[in-house]
Specification:
Low-confidence stretches of chain A: none
Number of helices of chain B: 15
Structural class of chain A: mainly alpha
Shape of chain A: globular
Low-confidence stretches of chain B: 1-8
Oligomer: heterodimer
Largest sheet of chain B: 5 strands, mixed
CATH topology of chain A: Ammonium transporter fold
Number of strands of chain B: 16
Number of domains of chain A: 1
Largest sheet of chain A: none
Shape of chain B: globular
CATH topology of the largest domain in chain B: Rossmann fold
Helix content of chain B: 25-40%
Mean pLDDT of chain A: 87
CATH architecture of the largest domain in chain B: 3-Layer(aba) Sandwich
Mean pLDDT of chain B: 91
Strand order of the largest sheet of chain B: 1-14-13-16-15
CATH class of the largest domain in chain B: Alpha Beta
CATH architecture of chain A: Orthogonal Bundle
Distance between the termini of chain B: 49 Å
Number of helices of chain A: 15
Chain lengths: ~350, ~450
Amino acid sequence: MNNKTNIELRTTPHVHAPHDVITIMRNVVFASLPMAAWSIWLFGISALLLLITVLATCLLTERLLNFKAENTLGDWSAAITGILLYLTLPPSFPLWMGAVAGFVAIGMGKVMFGGLGMNVFNPALLGRAFVQAAFPVAITTWTPALFDGRFTTLIPSTLTAPFMIPQEVGEFNNQVAVDAFSGATPLALQKFDGITTPLVDLLTGMTAGSAGETSAIIILVCGLYLAFRKMLDWRIPVAVMAGTFITAELLQLLNAENPDGLFMLFSGGLMLGAWFMATDMVGSPVTPRGAVFYGVLIGFITVIIRVYGGLNEGVMYAILLGNAATPLIDQLTQPRVFGEDKSQKESS
Amino acid sequence: MGLLNFFSKGTFSHGVHPPTNKEITSAKKIRRLPFPDHLILPLNQHIGKPAKAIVRKGQEVVRGEPIAEADGFVSVPLHAPATGRVKAIRPMSTARGEQFMSIVLDVYEGDTQQVQWRHEYDIDNMGAAQLRQAIQDMGMVGLGGAAFPSHAKVTIPDDKTVDTLVINGCECEPYLSCDHRTMLEYPEDLMRGISFVMRAAQLTTAVIGIEDNKMNAVEKLREHIPQGSNITVVAVETKYPQGSEKMLLKSLLGKEVPAGKIPLDIGAVVNNVGTVSAIGKLLPRGEGMTERVVTVTGPGIDKPGNYIIPLGTPIGFVLDQVGYRGGRNNFVLGGPMMGPSVSDLETPITKGSSGLLILNEAEVLKETRRIWPCIKCGQCLDACPMHLNPSQLGQLAGKRQFALMAEDYHLNDCFECGCCSYVCPSNIPLVQQFRVAKAYNREQVALKNE
């Protein structure tokens, strides 16, 4: 019985909560699947092919760039980047450009920084920012949701050969659209034409836009699931939404032509950004107060870009800026330690 | 969650909810284990200066007789837990991981093991100072695990005003039930002990805080509160580490002990129920502390329960008595959140041992958990009851910035409760890193002082 080889030595604590990085990442993947499925329902097989392409590129890049190291695909984080990146791209996006985005997202956004936990920026958004700069036309080319024959025909630009300029989709849009389709997203319509899309369409996602920036309701449900499982910090999306709403309402007070807060909340990529991009754990502050500040900052910058910027969408840059500010925010918002008297500390 | 905790009463913010696993033993009556053939009594069973041995090798001792004396104020004597003969005084393995000078006692087989040595006290007419001396003479220390000498704890410095005695019946560590059983089975001892401690420290009120998963103990103690005494029993939220002094005071009194200060600074003295009930039992008899209630539990044994075990009993002997199944096990002295693993089955039960856990493969040893990089999820910040930033501390520890950790990130406020490591999805051994950092800093200070 006194056989010493049977003794296992561990450091405290000897028990552990029933979750680890893999369970968190896996749940984020599961939570993003309904959004991906809804986008495929809205946009058909072109969207499906784009998803497969982006996801495969992300996974391959993660594995190939780490060819000498341990296989890190098992942590599911590359899969998250793939799915989220797909959700930010327009459904008509040429597949080869999708592959470029995936490669940049993982290669430059993550592996280059040292892999999981080391990246400064949200990898998916970095990939998206790269293709936004590289292919400004393709990434702002939209197709209508729910067009006829979306499960049998491909959008003409999808299969563009690598390094070729994609085919115009204007004519295709006119053929498939049920009613006159202007080829603009609600934000572009609002900004450039002064047309406000009805809130109901925004909530269900029956509008033109990126694959995943369309249904606010589904994003909300998936996000709430993660928040209740404590796999995302609820403070961040709440703060982003509050920051957006308040800034938009204030700007509307200045100029009645500016869109109202609710429109800002439910249009474009804001919901997806607030719930799934800004909440990327690695790039967001760890401190509770920092998370709130970071969220409000993102909401504020988003609205400023949308209203005053040359672009009609600003969530992506707002989040990337938020990521960049995170180390500083963390530094400035260290929690108040139990029993610490701040006033006393400053005087001493 | 954080929001809810903030507004509800009888709790503190942050903390974790590990499965308690107390139902294994919480209904099991306290029973005695037999005496082993030898006892190992380290001289450092308490915090403070180790006791000084006053017996020689080969000397015969009777049960209850002092075998080591207190060396200074923060120190307590040691009493022979059994009648026998001193076999050796030499370094032996202890739960703290290092070997320490211990008195090894050969127990006389067939002896009736009656307590044959005691002080004679006129308990009703003793003054506060005399009572405190008596508490030191009985070798009493905090039985919750810290093992701080009890008489030192109830000695109130002249410049402090203290009126409240807080009795800690939380027992927040998973698996343990010895305090729970003590409250259920020895409520009279506990109440008597409270009156002694209140007299010794000259306190006016007493509050017993018990986690609300032990409502039968709350009711039992309420029934036993003596008429006209100023004792209340309060149920607090079941949450780890509710039983930490600072957390319990926050829950019961709504006050935070200032950083770097002790409970005395907010007018309270905290004592564990096991300690106080042992004082209540032993002081009138004039006996020293020679045994304690230990919860022996875990999936690796057949007869888990709460046992009165003579101090110095080797763990190996306890295992023989409780149907140890063998195999690969992690032996933990204390609770699973803070108790150390022991490396030697000759390690003895000491005054601070509240539990002996036998955790086997099925429970915790499935595989060595993979350590991932910190993904900055912030769960440790939401768990840390001291509101530290374990994530940042962990990263600084990785860079060996130990001094910075203490200076800017409050490393020394960490009491190693283990909440951060418990929740960390990356399985980063945060507590261990902090221990290393603190030890390193202590060394540096010592070097500087040389």
